[in-house]
Each structure stands twice: as C-alpha cells, then as structure tokens.
Amino acid sequence: METIQLTVAQALLRFLASQYVVIDQQEHRFVHGVFGIFGHGNVTGLGEALEYDSYGLTYYQGHNEQGMAHAAIAFAKQKNRLGMYACTSSIGPGATNMITAAATATTNRIPLLLLPGDVFSCRQPDPVLQQLEVEHDYTLSVNDCFKPVSKYWDRITRPEQLMTACLNAFRVLTDPAQTGAVTLCLPQDVQAESYIYPAHFFAKRLWHIDREPVAQRALEEAVKLLRQAKQPLIIAGGGVHYSLATKTLADFAEKYAIPVAETQAGKSALPWSHPHNVGGIGVTGSAAANQLAAEADLIFAVGSRLQDFTTASKWAFQHPELKIIHLNINRFDALKMDSVALKGDAKYGLEQLSLLLTEYKASVVYQEKCRILKQAWQDEITKWYAIPPKNPAGMHQTSAIGLLNQFTTEQDVIVCAAGSLPGDLHRLWCSKQPKDYHLEYAYSCMGYEVAGGLGVRLAKENSAGEVYVLVGDGSYVMSHSELLTSIQEKKKITVIIFNNHGYQCIRNLQEAHGSKGFGNEFRYRNLTTNRLDGDYIPIDFCQYAAALGAKTFYAKAEDSFQSALMEAKQSTQTCVIVLAVLPKTMTHGYQTWWRVGVAEVSQSNEVQEAYMGMCEEVEKVRVY
C-alpha cells in the first residue's frame, strides 16, 4: 500500500483539495480555499501547511473570525451549496468569535467547515494563554461551545483520527438534508504531529448529491389534496434554489396556474415578471401573497423552514379547512405545522407531481383574482418607489431602494441581512433572475452584510455584474471587517450604508408595543435625563471607509445617489456610498402579524393595551 508521511495539518489540506460534489452528472470542486486569522493554536500547524503546500487552496486573510466565516457562508449560499471555504482560527477568542457564524450556517442549512485551534492534547503546557480551564471536566475547552450550533463536531486528539473525522465531516457538509456548520477542533500539538497516511485517503473523492424521489404513497396523497384545492398557494423556500429547481417551479406554476409566494431565502426563485409570482410571504410579505395565504385552502411549501416570519407566527393561514403539503429533503422541516410530508428532492419531487397531477388547473376565477392582486401590489410598489419632495435631512428609504432596483441589471446581486431593509426588500425588490437577491434571514445576523458581499463576489469571480451590499448604519458599525479583505484582495463590492442614526427597525418594534422609544438611536447621553436622548452622533462613515482604502460617496438626495451609483459602477475598487436616510420611511406590514413577548404588567398604559392586543391575535393562531 502506498503511503505518505504528513502532519495532521498538511494531510487535512491535501484531503480538502481533493473533494468534489456531483449533481446531475456535473462535477463541482467543493473546497475552494481557506479563510484564516493566525495565532498560537494554528499558526505553526495549519499556517505552516498553507505556507509550504496549500494543494491549490487559496488562502484569504480574514480580519475578524466571525466576518471571515460569514464570507464563507455567503460564498456557499450563492453557489447553491456546491462550493465552500474552510475557516481556521487560533484557540480561545479566535475560536469563539466563529460561534455566531456557526449558528448562522446551521440555521440557514449552509455548509461551513470550521477548524478552530484547540489547547494542547498532551496537556503538559497547561494552562496556555487563552485557555479556559474547566475544573469539573478537564476534557472541555471553549470549542465545546460549538456543539449545539454544529451539525457535526469532532476533536482530533490523535493524527490517525483525522481520516474518520474528515469522512464524517464531508458526509454532513455534502448532505442537502443535514448540512450546516461542521467543527473539527485541532489541538495545536496534534496539528503539527505526523502520521504515515495511506495515499488513497488523498485520492480525488466524488460526493454524489443524488436526487431523492418522493415515495409513491406520499405523492398520491398530495395529488388528491391538490386536485381538491380551490385556492392553492405555493410557498417557495431556499430549497428551490439549492435543488436547482427554479425553472421546474416556474413550469409547475404555469402548468397548474397556481400562485407562488416567496420566502426570503426563496426570493428570486421566480423573477417578479413571472405572472404567477405574487411576492414575498409573511411578516415582511406583500399584500397580495398575504391575502392569498389567509384565504388558501391548501398551502404547498417547497423547501422552506416555515419560520415565524414566513407563517406570521402561525397566524397567516386562516382557512378553517386548510391543508399543508411540504416538499422538503429534510424530514424535520417537511413535518412542520402537521404537513403532509413529501420527503425528497425539490426538483425531482415537482417533476413527479407534475406527471401525476393531470387534468388539474386553478379555476379561471381564482386566476383572475390572483392577477388583480398582483397588479394592485405592483401599483403599491410603484407608490413606495415614487420620489417624494426633497428633504434637506435625507432620502426616503423606499425611494432609494427603488432607484437602486431600476439601476441594477440582471447580472447584479444585492446582499442584506438585518434591520428594516430586509422587510422593504422582501416586499418591494423586483428580482430579475434567480440568485440576484441574497438575504441571510434565517438568523438575520447583524454584521453579515459586508462579509456576505465579499463571499458573493468570490462566488461571482468569473461572472459579470456588480455586488451591492445594503446595510443599515447599526449593522455596519457592528461588523464590517471584511471590507478591508475586499480592498486587500481587489474583490470589488459596493457597500451602501443606509444611515438613519441607529437601530430604527427595533425602535419601530418597540413603539408598536407601547414604548416611546428607548436605547435604539445613536445619540449622546443627556446628562439631565441620564438617557441616550441627546443629539445624534455625527459619524463620518465616508472618512472611515476612505481611510481603509475604499472609494467613498455621500448622498442625501436622489440625484446625488444616482451619480454615486454611476461613478461606483465605473470604478474597479471597493466603493462605499453613504446615504442619509430619514427614519420611519420604511414600509409597514401588510395583512400580517408577528408574535413578540409583550410585558403582561407595566407602568405604561400603552404597553398594557399592546399586551391585550397581542392576546387577541394569539387566539387566531393555528396551534400545532
């Protein structure tokens, strides 16, 4: 048997470089490179391996561990989970900085390989710098914190363990039903230890993503329900993209004249121009989709987690005889809300249903109703996009989005994650083709946006088009470290900061439930009241971004924003456009509700009224 002696770190890189995924007879290189920040715990292990033979894996220097891992997530998401990056960190704080990213990946069902350094396996230098000593269980380190947010977790304490660990890691990473964050903890002494590995461990390995069919019994049950439906509605989730099923869904909707509403992850599955696309669903959805959801006698979900924003906290579906069918590769998701579970691949499952669902089409009356609702929603979008009279303090958020939507081409991608922007984008953004809309909204992780833009740019490396990062000032302040990475690597993104002086989305949520507004704006402390209700802090985001090397623009009116967009598009370097945006110029909810915990007792009459209102709405919720 042919063998080769390598350190654990060297062997790991060689293994990563040899992994491929196959779907529909097409091979895709799975691991494209490694993001990393070096410190003790990985610099003399993985750092040495990357320096002297990376086996073709590109190394990118991160500038915050959470940020670099978010960039890796965005890359994999934009690649429809057919490509990914690994992320390595030092021990201690470098490792724990990635826990938020691990949760983001697992919640979004996105493959992410984390390689945190760990304390010495031999324990002889203990306690080393940054080591957490757990007196009651000395086998624990801070890396055990990754366990609840990882789909697979392992600690390599002997070099030969790497082989089974890697196979299990990629079993999960390449499984569309189980994928998420995978954490392989690497004690710093073990990383540098060598072992005589069998050469076949490093041979090119193909991980086949076989399209799982739906069981015949389940198909027949679903077909029976669909044929009985008079007001069906399809909910398209992220699984439509990951199954490469966008055209299949479009054909299915056209064949049976069933309207399609989209989740945040599913948005752009159909272009807005598609006649059966009725817009976003749920708390951040359109009036058209939410009215149809309320009246639907059958919901057909395809590849969705059915989270509370999609179902309006299980309030959205009001028909007394409602049935739910859920086509999903993950049985856990397929069974949610007592659905008739169609466990299988989204694309293949739709094709199977289409072969059986003969002689069915939504009624002409229902089709006309959907057409009227869609047109009314288009009129509403036009109204929100209309440019209001100039205000010296800044622009309306919705008109800025409208200008950007009209400016972008079908080759461009927008990236967002948190704040009020996801709501406005879900409701108002008119997608032109699949994957032009990149929202991380399963975890809605503040600070994802700039890093996500870098990840999308890496995924689009050989493709035309711009990457526009839409981010509120609050989320931008929280994390924008990978702006420097994009500048360093000359991977151009255009960051548009919607500066409305704080966390205005959460302020709106407060005020909708009895608050007068507390702790959510970026203001100086008022020494008289001892509260943050003084003047706004005049943050110069342009100066800060320019100091890093970005080309910057400031706009507080539509004409200057348009000029900035045109000039940024001509530039070859990363750009930052700072928009002065008026608070409370975002959209509101349409025929929807979101359950939040309102104080049962309060000194405020408004809060007490909000609590009573919440109790009334809870009575309308479907209980499962």
Structure description:
It is a single chain. This protein is an alpha/beta fold. The protein has three domains: 3-208, Thiamin diphosphate (ThDP)-binding fold, Pyr/PP domains (Rossmann fold), CATH 3.40.50; 216-377, Rossmann fold; 388-501 and 537-580, Rossmann fold. It contains 24 helices and 23 strands. The strands form five sheets. A six-stranded parallel sheet has the order 5-4-6-7-9-8, sandwiched between helices.
Can you tell me the residue ranges where pLDDT is under 50 for at least 5 consecutive residues? none
Q: Summarize model confidence as the mean pLDDT.
A: 96
CATH superfamily of the largest domain: Thiamin diphosphate (ThDP)-binding fold, Pyr/PP domains
**Order of strands in the sheet with most strands:** 5-4-6-7-9-8
CATH topology term of the largest domain: Rossmann fold
CATH class of the largest domain: Alpha Beta
User: How big is the Rg?
Assistant: 25 Å
Distance between the termini: 57 Å
Strand content: 15-25%
Basic shape: globular
Task: Give the % helix.
Answer: 25-40%
Domain module tally: 3
- State the helix count: 24
Class from secondary-structure proportions: alpha/beta
Query: What is the makeup of the main sheet?
Result: 6 strands, parallel
Q: How many individual β-strands?
A: 23
Secondary structure layout plus pairing:
Blueprint: E1 3-7, H1 8-16, E2 19-23, E3 26-29, E4 31-36, H2 46-52, E5 58-61, H3 65-78, E6 84-89, H4 93-96, H5 99-108, E7 112-118, E8 152-155, H6 161-173, E9 181-187, H7 188-192, E10 194-198, E11 205-208, H8 216-228, E12 232-236, H9 238-242, H10 246-256, E13 260-262, E14 277-280, H11 287-295, E15 298-302, H12 308-311, E16 323-328, H13 331-334, E17 340-343, H14 346-356, H15 364-385, H16 397-407, E18 413-416, H17 421-428, E19 437-439, H18 448-459, E20 467-472, H19 473-478, H20 482-488, E21 494-499, H21 504-511, H22 541-548, E22 551-555, H23 558-570, E23 575-580, H24 605-618
Parallel strand pairs: 2-11, 4-5, 4-6, 6-7, 7-9, 8-9, 12-13, 12-15, 13-14, 15-16, 16-17, 18-19, 18-20, 20-21, 21-23, 22-23
Antiparallel strand pairs: 1-10, 2-3
Helix pairs in contact: 3-5, 3-18, 8-14, 10-14, 11-15, 16-17, 16-23
